Amino acid sequence: MCRSCHQEKGKTYAETAHHFASSWPSQRTMKGSFTPDSNVMKTANPYLTFEMTVTEQGYFQSAVEKVSPTKKISRTERIDVVTGSARKGQTYLFWKGDQLFQLPVTYWTDTGSWVNSPSYPDGSPHFDKAVIPRCLECHASYFEWMPPPVNRYRKTSLVLGVTCEKCHGPGRQHVARHRLKSSLPAGTPEAIVNPSALSRDRQIDLCGLCHSGNGTPLQPALSFLPGDVLADYIDIPYYSAEEAVDVHGSQVQTLKRSKCFQSTTTLTCTTCHDVHKPQVDAAAFSPRCLTCHEAKQCGEYAKLGEQGTRNCIDCHMPLQESRVLFSNTNGKKLMPKVRNHQIGIYAGENVH
Ligand code: HEC
Ligand code: HEC
Ligand code: HEC
Ligand code: HEC
Ligand code: HEC
Ligand code: HEC
Ligand code: HEC
User: How far is the CA of 174 from the centre of ligand 1 (A)?
Assistant: First the structure.
């Protein structure tokens, strides 16, 4: 509904990770391979494998257990919801009645292969991780939940992806006003949140709803609206300086630890990110640093010169392995690399 008028933003937004933070399974959104040879995942248990198959009824995952030389037992569930745009990976959800669960096999972008879903043990078949409202609060835009157990939802209520209104608040009034534009007096308020008009704290809170970790909800999911004080809704975990970077969104905590943040009143997420466009090329963010710094200020400038210091990002916001979220697959431990948002000076081991 927003895109009909804001066409340019709508077009680039449709390619973003937010748009694909969750989606219905389709050829467009499904990144893993379902073709024979690459559709099997081995586990640390030689008698257990997982198979990914596609039929006219949809995409499926099966756990196949060899219980004797001639006998196999299996359990098959359909992939009903895709989570993740696959920058790092994708995890899949399935309905059992009106309860939503996580499937055992995840697609891992780094290796281009199927892996054991993070938090499931390697080598035993599990289909039992309940998908709680907080998960959908970060990865989807709307859902209605039902009396316990905690993972019961009205199936047809799900609105997938992080849509415009998650960051701009409810837009019905704004749309109605613009459709009747001619009859509106000049100076009528827009009836929509423009985050750039919020204080820095409230801007950070908006992103922090999803980019500062799970936290402990103090209010029902979906209560927070752009402009609200996040601490009233979620008890956000505090991270000590030694804490490992977390794939699940400690960007707020890590950025706040930076001198750049602490010594200014303006630095916020949108100093660097335009969330209406895919954010892909890390080095391309370097000009953002130069809005406050000069390359000559860099301690390495004398040694490396203009060319050698052009990419500020890889030295001052290094990619590091997440020690918080990982997959144990077929006896190996896989850790995704995340961009540390604490802008700072790092020891040589992190500098590429
Ligand atoms: C009927 C046309 C129309 C629709 C539909 C529409 N907008 Fe707008 N919107 C406008 C116009 C016109 C403006 C003012 C000029 C501009 O900034 O483009 C505007 C301005 C805005 C602004 C800036 C407000 C400010 O205070 O600076 C935001 C944010 C916004 N729209 C978001 C949305 C979102 C989110 C949706 C969907 C819920 C939406 N719009 C749907 C026409 C529309
Ligand atoms: C409703 C939850 C939610 C809110 C609010 C939110 N994000 Fe995100 N964001 C996500 C999720 C989920 C992902 C991961 C999507 C994926 O890759 O599947 C993500 C990914 C990103 C990425 C990396 C992907 C990319 O676009 O290249 C950036 C950067 C980002 N968010 C910045 C922001 C900023 C800045 C804000 C505040 C203006 C914000 N987000 C608000 C949920 C949210
Ligand atoms: C507190 C908000 C939050 C919660 C809760 C949350 N996520 Fe995420 N998730 C994110 C953000 C933010 C990212 C992107 C992080 C990054 O790139 O650093 C992400 C990344 C992911 C990715 C990788 C996406 C990609 O494109 O690489 C998957 C898959 C995923 N989440 C699935 C889930 C599932 C399934 C649940 C619930 C069972 C869940 N997440 C709970 C915020 C959340
Ligand atoms: C992840 C959060 C997020 C999502 C999703 C999002 N926006 Fe925004 N939007 C922002 C932020 C933050 C700003 C303020 C940008 C700034 O400070 O430079 C903004 C600014 C705007 C503006 C006014 C400023 C301008 O550049 O004209 C419009 C209009 C707008 N967004 C429309 C949309 C529409 C339409 C969508 C969906 C297609 C959308 N936004 C999705 C966060 C978001
Ligand atoms: C909004 C302005 C602003 C932006 C944008 C900014 N910085 Fe800073 N940065 C500062 C300020 C102010 C300081 C503190 C200077 C001081 O204390 O002497 C600082 C300090 C630093 C330091 C010293 C950190 C330490 O722990 O000693 C480094 C390194 C740095 N910035 C690099 C960067 C890089 C790289 C970028 C881009 C990714 C960046 N900055 C973006 C304002 C900014
Ligand atoms: C090859 C890695 C590398 C690149 C590229 C790089 N830096 Fe640095 N930078 C460093 C190191 C290492 C230090 C610490 C030097 C020292 O303590 O003598 C540093 C120090 C700094 C400082 C702190 C200086 C002080 O006196 O406290 C700033 C500010 C800075 N860099 C900004 C930048 C900016 C802006 C860019 C991009 C234009 C950049 N750096 C590119 C490695 C790099
Ligand atoms: C000083 C610049 C800067 C600021 C400020 C900044 N980011 Fe980033 N962010 C980056 C860069 C650079 C990347 C790497 C982009 C890439 O690899 O394509 C990145 C990547 C991300 C990603 C993807 C994470 C990953 O590991 O791939 C998320 C999510 C994100 N930022 C969220 C945020 C949020 C939320 C804020 C505010 C709390 C924020 N960023 C503030 C520069 C910044």
Answer: 7
